[in-house]
Amino acid sequence: MKILHTADWHIGKKLHKHDLFADFDLFIDWLCKIIQEEKIELLLISGDVFDLANPSSDARKQYYQALIKLQKLNCKIIATGGNHDSPAMLDAPKEILRELDITIIGGLPEKLEETIIPIFNAEQKAELVIAAIPFLRGADLRSANEGITYEDRIEAIRNGIQHTFKKAAEICQHQFPEVPAIAMGHLFAAGIETSESERDIQIGNQAAFNASQFGDFFKYVALGHIHKPQRVSAEIPVFYSGSPIPLSFSERKDDKRILILDTATSWEPKSVTVPHFRKLLKISGDLNDIEFKLKTVEDHDHLDYLIEVDLIEEQYDAQKIYALDTLVNGFKKPGYEIVKQRAQFKNKLKGTAELYTESQQLEDLKPTDVFSELVTAHDYDEATKNEIWSAFNEILEEIHQSENPAE
């Protein structure tokens, strides 16, 4: 049997207020071609189908459109909920989707047996069994009385995860003896690499689960939650497929992948690179560097490339912040969009309170005294200083008139 493992679709994701709907549509079109070319019989989606627990109507529409495209390929689909997903929202249409050979496990059901899904061959004989374990929330893993200290609660969560997978393995063995089994999971495994777009599982990284606790029963564990594709150290093949598209600028250099297993030959997956539908660019340097790099970006015919601009200067200078704003607002290169900008100064300007000795109190100083100290901290020429003081005096006069209208 040929199986495709993917996860962390995050439908509805916005990257600095820029939606990624077009990226996901292109991924699904590409995925459909891969399923046809590779003759995939089973598609596993290991959690975080949506980016938000209450996705927008557009995100829900895109989700159902994707399922319709995939269902037409004569490929069984099993999807589990992740920490971003609402179990109730995912589970709501599961009866209808089951008629289309699509199984959704949004949250952990009361009976763990409901997560055990046999896959039958043409002779209606169980060829494979899937333990489709969704993201396990604290309420799924421990009772209210269990664990008094923080460390006790964390340990209870780890033990609960281990117990859930161990019990799932026992059910598989009992109901389908001699049939190979695969587990799906959505969790944080110890010792893996993360990116800034992941939200830590449970109560931070301290709830990381040691993958050796999966045991040796399952032939393969298809994980979601971590966006960088990677193997986890364990007795059996345990893999994160990663997210299919970059979800943060920290992922801009990642090779996005899907994983394909051919159970007739091996339980080790083949990695297939997902095309780059759009690039994320980080442009950094001083003002001259940024201006030059923005002017020399090359033409392309892909989705708009998104740019994060990071100004790095030695000395604090308000004029350079203004110049950066002007440069960004005036950037109109077709095929590119600046979605974030920030300024960093190596020699950080002291805060207002730090400009005075301990014996001086800010409330005892006049506004002109405070402003004079701030201006002196900059290396302005005389002409610039005069312009700044002129603007300051004008603002100060307006404030004075608004506070004393009768004068």
From TrEMBL:
<keyword id="KW-0269">Exonuclease</keyword>
<dbReference type="Pfam" id="PF00149">
    <property type="entry name" value="Metallophos"/>
</dbReference>
<dbReference type="InterPro" id="IPR004593">
    <property type="entry name" value="SbcD"/>
</dbReference>
<keyword id="KW-0255">Endonuclease</keyword>
<protein>
    <recommendedName>
        <fullName>Nuclease SbcCD subunit D</fullName>
    </recommendedName>
</protein>
<comment type="subunit">
    <text>Heterodimer of SbcC and SbcD.</text>
</comment>
<dbReference type="InterPro" id="IPR026843">
    <property type="entry name" value="SbcD_C"/>
</dbReference>
<keyword id="KW-0378">Hydrolase</keyword>
<dbReference type="Pfam" id="PF12320">
    <property type="entry name" value="SbcD_C"/>
</dbReference>
<dbReference type="GO" id="GO:0008408">
    <property type="term" value="F:3'-5' exonuclease activity"/>
</dbReference>
<comment type="function">
    <text>SbcCD cleaves DNA hairpin structures. These structures can inhibit DNA replication and are intermediates in certain DNA recombination reactions. The complex acts as a 3'-&gt;5' double strand exonuclease that can open hairpins. It also has a 5' single-strand endonuclease activity.</text>
</comment>
<dbReference type="InterPro" id="IPR050535">
    <property type="entry name" value="DNA_Repair-Maintenance_Comp"/>
</dbReference>
<dbReference type="InterPro" id="IPR004843">
    <property type="entry name" value="Calcineurin-like_PHP"/>
</dbReference>
<keyword id="KW-0235">DNA replication</keyword>
<dbReference type="InterPro" id="IPR041796">
    <property type="entry name" value="Mre11_N"/>
</dbReference>
<keyword id="KW-0233">DNA recombination</keyword>
<feature type="domain" description="Nuclease SbcCD subunit D C-terminal">
    <location>
        <begin position="277"/>
        <end position="376"/>
    </location>
</feature>
<comment type="similarity">
    <text>Belongs to the SbcD family.</text>
</comment>
<dbReference type="GO" id="GO:0006310">
    <property type="term" value="P:DNA recombination"/>
</dbReference>
<dbReference type="GO" id="GO:0004519">
    <property type="term" value="F:endonuclease activity"/>
</dbReference>
<dbReference type="GO" id="GO:0006260">
    <property type="term" value="P:DNA replication"/>
</dbReference>
<keyword id="KW-0540">Nuclease</keyword>
<dbReference type="InterPro" id="IPR029052">
    <property type="entry name" value="Metallo-depent_PP-like"/>
</dbReference>
<feature type="domain" description="Calcineurin-like phosphoesterase">
    <location>
        <begin position="1"/>
        <end position="229"/>
    </location>
</feature>
